[in-house]
Amino acid sequence: MRAKIVPLGLGAALVVVLAVLPLLSIQVPGILPGPTYTPGSLQLLALCMVYAALALSYNLLLGTGGQLSFGHALYFGGGAYGLGILLERTDLALWPAVALTLAGVGAIAVVTGAVSLRVTGIPFAMVTLAFAQAGSVLVRRNPDGLTGGDEGLSVDTEHVPAALVGVVHTRNLYWLALAVVVVAYLVVLWIDRSRVGHVAAAARENELRVRALGLQPYAAKLVVFVASGLLAALAGVAYMLLQSGTVPRSVGADLTITVLVMVVLGGVGSRWGAIIGGVLYTLLNQRLTLLARSDAVESLPSWLHVPLSEPMFILGGLFVLVVLFVPGGIAGTATRLTGRRRTRTGVAVLEAADSEERALEPQP
Amino acid sequence: MSTVVLLLATGLGLGALYFLVASGLSLIYGLMHVLNFAHGSFLTLGAFLGWAAAQRLDATSWTGFVASILVGALVGAVVAALTELLLIRPLYERHIEQVLVTVGLSLATVALFEGIWGTDPDFIRGPAWMDRTTGVLGARIPNDRFVIIGIAVLVLVAIVVFLRKTRYGMVIRAGVENRAMVTALGIDVRRSFTLVFAIGGAAAGLGGVLAAHYFGYVSPSLGGSLLIFAFIVTVIGGLGSLTGAAIASVLVALLQQFANYYAGGTGDFVIVLALAGVLLVRPSGLLGKAA
Question: ipTM of the assembly?
Answer without folding.
Answer: 0.82
